[in-house]
Structures are given as C-alpha cells and as structure tokens.
Specification:
24% helix, two-stranded antiparallel sheet, alpha+beta, 2 domains, eight-stranded mixed β-sheet, 306 residues
C-alpha cells in the first residue's frame, strides 16, 4: 500500500496501517445526523492533519458563501502551528473552536513595558491545563439533563502564534453531589467574540457527535472502508464516490418518505404525532422518491428544509 501511515481504527481499537483523510464539512442541524462534506483531502505521510486542515480552512474563509458567520470546530490534534497561523489570519466572520489536549500550556498577554532596555516581552503568565489557576469566569449550566460547570480564562494565546488570542474554556460534567463525572475535563479554545455565552461553546463542540454518526454511517452503510487496499488512486476515487453517494442522499431527503417503508407509505398519522425527521439511513431505503417513480406527497409528513 503506497504512502500509508498509521490510522486510528474503531474496529481494532488501535492504530493500523492505512490512509488518513482530512474532512471539512457542515453540520446541517442540531439533533440530526446529517453532515455535508465540503472537502476531503488525503493526508500524505510527509504532512500532518493540521497542515492539510490549514489549507482547507484558508479555502473556506476565502469563499464568500454562505454569508453567515462560520465556526470551525476541530479535534485536539489540529491546533498545531501551521493550522493556528492560518486561523489567526482568518476574516472576522470566521472563528475557531478547538479541543485542547490536557497537557497543553498557553500564555497570557505580556505585562506593559517597564521602560527598561531590551526587547519587549511577547508572553505573560503561563496557563498549564493540568494545573490551572483560578478562572476569570465561572458558571453552571444545565445541559443534557445534567449540570455542567464552565470555567473560562480570558485573553490567552499559543506560544508559537502569539497573535491568535482567545478564550480558554474548561467544561466539567457534574454528578448530583457536585463532583466531576469524568476524570479529565474537556478543554476548548475559542478565537471568536469573548462575549459569547460559554454554554453555546459547549453545545457547538458537542455537535461533533454528529460527525461520529456520519462516519459510522459511511462505514457501515456506504462501504467507506471497502476499497482501502491496493493502489492509492482507486482508494481516493472510492472515497470520492462515497462522498457523492452521501450527497445524493442529502439532496434527496426532501423526497424521501419520513414514515414507514416506501411499500407501505400512506397518509396515516402515527400514533404519537408526526414522524421523526428523515435520517441518512431512512433516505437510503427510499431511492424511488429520488428518481420520481412514486408521487411526492403520498407520505403524510414530508420534511422541509430551510
């Protein structure tokens, strides 16, 4: 297998020889498993995911569509110097929300110049995530049926990229007695407006579970890993074919029946109200709606998109 490296495998629960791809896409809606891939680029062995992701982010920021603000949510292995430098040069309407490893160290803004000879300082006090000091802000919110303690440290930056200043956020899910539910907290870095509600940052980061469902669907239903053997060209072509198939389902979801199986679809209202929103798996089982072999409107509750 040419130009292969180590790739994490959920099936083997370890890193195995293979190819890594950097996926850039959009989460369609909260509470649903739809994910729209925008760019899929293979990560060569001569590069790192953060370097490839930096190029993808630059192309995304240069695209004027959509006009709404964009939030780039990345995992903890992306905040490397090349990616952070690209993020520091983004337009004001593009913000970064990155997970941080618990062993990272960030720096505060330097103290004002003292007038003494020498080069002005670029960095201030250290913030070691393993042993952070008292937070600048702290609040408790209710999320997913449990209390979440959110602590924030204002105006910190990475040592290699001092001009990317943002908010460092620690998220702790609490038990009923107020003790942390997990051994390690969740650490986030936010480069957008500091006035944003910290609970909104937690919600945006947890939308990444939609991407996990997306990859599971590609692997189990669309055969993403079926052709990862042999030459590199067919592997990249197969990944592109799977992405195209997913887009076909995404574009056809308005025509897919959100009720029972297509053979029994009728105008009957379900016992407990309307049917749930259409899912990628449900759209996959109703191809006749995409090709117009059945009349649209035969199902009672058709999902509309905005």
């Amino acid at each position: 297998m040419p130009d292969r490296s180590k790739a994490s495998s959920a099936a083997h629960d370890k890193a195995v020889p293979g190819h890594r791809f950097s996926w850039l896409g959009r989460v369609i809606a909260s509470g649903q498993s739809w994910f729209a891939p925008r760019e899929v680029v293979r990560v060569p062995t001569t590069s790192r995911p953060g370097e490839v992701g930096a190029e993808q982010v630059q192309r995304l920021a240069a695209d004027p569509t959509p006009a709404q603000p964009k939030v780039i949510v990345v995992d903890s292995h992306f905040p490397v110097p090349p990616f952070l430098r690209a993020s520091s040069a983004l337009a004001p309407g593009v913000a970064l929300l990155a997970r941080l490893a618990s062993n990272r160290v960030l720096d505060a803004a330097p103290r004002p110049p003292t007038g003494k000879p020498g080069r002005p300082r670029k960095h201030g006090a250290k913030l070691a995530l393993r042993q952070p000091g008292p937070p600048d802000r702290q609040e408790t919110a209710r999320r997913f049926g449990q209390d979440v303690r959110i602590s924030a440290w204002v105006s910190y930056h990475f040592l290699a990229v001092p001009n990317l200043v943002g908010l460092v956020v620690r998220v702790e899910f609490l038990r009923a007695d107020g003790s942390p539910r997990y051994k390690r907290p969740l650490w986030l870095f936010w480069s957008g407006p500091s006035a944003i509600a910290r609970a909104a940052l937690v919600r945006m980061d947890l939308l990444r579970f939609t991407i996990e469902h997306f990859f599971r669907f590609l692997s189990q239903r669309l055969g993403l890993l079926a052709a990862h053997r042999g030459d590199l060209g067919p592997i990249e072509t197969w990944v592109a074919v799977v992405v195209l198939a997913d887009w076909q389902l995404l574009l056809a979801r308005d025509w897919a029946c959100s009720g029972p199986a297509p053979s029994t679809c009728s105008n009957r209202v379900p016992r407990h109200g309307s049917y749930p929103p259409i899912t990628p798996t449900r759209s996959r089982y109703t191809p006749e709606y995409a090709f117009g072999s059945l009349p649209i409107g035969q199902c009672h509750d058709r999902v509309e998109t905005t």
